[in-house]
């Protein structure tokens, strides 16, 4: 295993831990906070991928950083923002699949 | 000697806010000791119920960022405020265990938020985690319940996020629903 592989493996392991430890909170917190935890884990995964220059992911991370606090302060605004965030990812997925082929 | 600034209490209440971005530098043990003292000085309905775990081991903090999903900050230290369930039960019964001891932990959080400001520190109250994760992290025995973890670190004007607006509390006069008009806000 190269040092880069080890670093990647370690970062992924940490994110796996975040996801597992977030799971029981879904039973005790609001559904909106569960959604927040999933986006937080996704953000950590994007952070791991940040080495690979990807403009879309960089903008997505900045967008999450700008709006994450809404989960605590303005739940309706967070939900609205999340819809736009998801629409952005869906459109990007379509572009990628088209470009890469199935 | 700890370099502490005087703080007007009302000013400290007005400025109080949660911090999620901290400076990298560690918080010296004597400063953390001062914070632990502030937590211990908060109201406590019975003796021996509160336990404070002072945490500054970087390994524990790095792990906390994985196993405590609400610990969304880069603090170099934290205080875990816990309740001895056996002691609470023996000295005050079930209500002490389920109700009163949690109030006491909340009061300790308020003390920490004020004391922090005299030491150039900031805090973030964190409760979004599973008890088992906190127990495993700090080796808490079964009769010690983790109530709240408080992130602690140095903050500056630059690291502080803007104050959260729009959080309200109900205020009533003599009966629920009757407005209390004091004019002094
Ligand atoms: C009891 C309690 C638990 C909290 N739990 C968390 C938490 O798990 N993670 C977090 O980042 N903030 C947590 N917060 C911080 C709140 O989100 C914050 O207080 C709120 O956004 C208002 O901001 P302010 O305290 O700066 O005015 C908690 C606050 C309180 C009082």
Which terms would index this structure?
heterodimer; A: 102 residues; mainly alpha; 6 helices; 84% helix; B: alpha+beta; four-stranded antiparallel β-sheet; two-stranded antiparallel ribbon; globular; binds flavin mononucleotide
General description of the model:
The complex is a heterodimer of chains A (102) and B (185). The radius of gyration of chain A is 15 Å and the shape is globular. Chain A has one domain. The model of chain A has no long low-confidence stretch (mean pLDDT 94). The longest helix of chain A is centred in the C-terminal third of the chain and has 26 residues. Chain A is 84% helix and 0% strand. With 102 residues, chain A is an all-alpha fold. In chain A, helix 1 packs antiparallel against helix 3. The longest helix of chain B is centred in the middle third of the chain and has 34 residues. Chain B has one domain: NADH Oxidase (3-Layer(aba) Sandwich), CATH 3.40.109. Chain B is of the alpha+beta class and 185 residues long. The mean pLDDT of chain B is 95. The termini of chain B are far apart. Chain B has a four-stranded antiparallel sheet, with helices on both faces. A two-stranded antiparallel sheet of chain B has the order 5-6. Chain B contains five helices and six strands, in the order ααβαβαβαβββ. In chain B, strand 5 and strand 6 form a beta hairpin. Chain B is 39% helix and 21% strand. Classes of the chains: A mainly alpha (102), B alpha+beta (185). The interface between A and B is medium-sized, with 15 and 15 residues. Flavin mononucleotide binds next to strand 3 of chain B.
Task: Using the alpha-carbon principal axes, give the shape of chain B.
Answer: globular
Radius of gyration of chain A: 15 Å
Q: Could you tell me the CATH topology label of chain B.
A: NADH Oxidase
Largest interface: A-B, 15 and 15 residues
Tell me the number of structural domains of chain B: 1
Gross geometry of chain A: globular
Which ligands accompany this protein? flavin mononucleotide
Strand content of chain A: under 5%
Radius of gyration of chain B: 17 Å
With strands numbered from the N-terminus, the spatial order across the biggest sheet of chain B is 1-2-4-3
Give the name of the CATH superfamily of chain B.
Answer: NADH Oxidase
Oligomeric form: heterodimer
Ranges of chain A with pLDDT <50 over ≥5 residues?
none
Poorly predicted ranges of chain B: none
Order of helices and strands of chain A: HHHHHH
- The structural domain count of chain A equals 1
Q: Which class of secondary structure composition applies to the elements of chain A?
A: mainly alpha
Pfam families (chain A): DUF6092 (PF19585)
InterPro entries (chain A): DUF6092
Domain Nitroreductase (chain B): 65-154
InterPro entries (chain B): Nitroreductase (IPR029479), Nitroreductase-like (IPR000415), Nitroreductase/BluB (IPR050627)
